[in-house]
Write a structure and sequence with these properties.
This protein is α+β, with helices and mostly antiparallel strands. The chain contains 14 helices and 4 strands.
Length: about 350
């Protein structure tokens, strides 16, 4: 059996070798998608996350079990995204450091276990040489990498800990993303944009840059970051045909028409239309296709007879959810009540 397995994994079956950039960027891509999906795990039930995280700071909730706040299905989905996020950010960071080390010499030792050894280099020296930043930045990056290793081990080797939504949000937004951003400025990684970045979007401001700016300049706003993460998550789902080249050669038009027809059918087939008889369909702020359905809550007028109460007309309706049939962008009113205050162009539904 050992020989059979060894033969199966012989050198001729290696897909690529010594291409640390591609594999590290693949891990970055997976980690970012997982982080951006952490709001989507709780869509429509985000209030539960808010109440739970707020309860950690409020003694009046201390005797209420976690299960009261977190629905099991969403809880498990968050576990998956958390694990993907931590494992692959750590893998990205490790391969980055090893790649920089390899550039120094094939024979240097990593990590540096014995600083007195001749052929060794400290992590701080490596970071100082290859990543922009002052002394404080380098110290913070060293602490970040150690913490990432600890968190990776806690879920991968021991299965011990899953931290809550706010903790992961702040850890990634305030500490990991600035490190990633600095790494990607290095010439070695500048050409890898297409391997990890989502497609261009119709709105002017890049939501990932807005996340970085938020954690740098503002107090943490859980709902604003959730909105920005959802924009990023959905952008990864923009279809391959929805790009400038395919529109210019009239290739994308037929696909867009099919998606728009699908959205129109879904809107008309909804059981609870709005007061005008059908749901609105708007251009999506992510993919720019007219496939964003505005779902509404309906209040009926009722009449009574000897058989009881029955609806006779729609009294009024109001939007409660938006969902794109093309890229899957999705928001709920009870999750993020006032999206307009975040001043992101084209997003104001309630």
């Amino acid at each position: 059996m050992k020989n059979e397995i060894d033969n199966l994994f012989n050198d001729k079956n290696i897909l690529f070798s010594e291409d640390d950039i591609q594999l590290s960027i693949t891990s970055l891509h997976i980690a970012l998608k997982a982080y951006f999906s952490t709001y989507y795990c709780f869509k429509g039930l985000f209030d539960n996350v808010c109440y739970y995280n707020d309860s950690l700071e409020n003694d009046i909730f201390k005797d209420i079990p976690k299960e009261y706040f977190l629905v099991e299905l969403e809880h498990r989905e968050y576990h998956k995204q958390y694990i993907e996020c931590i494992l692959h950010f750590q893998h990205f960071a490790e391969l980055v450091c090893k790649g920089f080390l390899y550039d120094e010499s094939k024979y240097l030792i990593y990590p540096c276990i014995n600083k007195s050894e001749e052929n060794s280099i400290s992590e701080s020296c490596l970071l100082k040489k290859y990543i922009d930043g002052n002394e404080d930045d380098i110290k913070n990056y060293e602490s970040l990498l150690k913490k990432l290793v600890y968190l990776r081990n806690s879920v991968w080797h021991r299965g011990l800990e899953i931290y809550n939504y706010d903790t992961l949000d702040i850890f990634v937004g305030k500490y990991i993303l600035p490190f990633v951003n600095n790494v990607l400025k290095h010439p070695k990684y500048k050409t890898s944009l297409h391997l990890w970045k989502y497609k261009d979007t119709p709105y002017d401001k890049d939501p990932l840059i807005l996340i970085l700016k938020h954690f740098k300049d503002e107090d943490y706003d859980r709902k604003k970051v959730a909105l920005l993460k959802e924009l990023c998550r959905a952008t990864y789902n923009i279809p391959y045909w929805n790009n400038k080249m395919f529109w210019e050669i009239n290739y994308a038009q037929n696909y867009a028409k099919l998606v728009e027809e699908q959205a129109s059918i879904a809107a008309k087939g909804n059981y609870f239309p709005n007061s005008n008889g059908e749901l609105k369909v708007l251009n999506c702020p992510v993919c720019n296709i007219k496939s964003l359905i505005i779902y509404e809550e309906v209040e009926f007028k009722y009449e009574y007879d000897e058989n009881g109460m029955y609806p006779v007309d729609i009294e009024y309706s109001y939007p409660v959810e938006v969902k794109c049939e093309c890229c899957s962008f999705e928001l709920y009113r009870n999750d993020i009540e006032d999206v307009s205050k975040y001043e992101i162009e084209g997003i104001n539904y309630w």
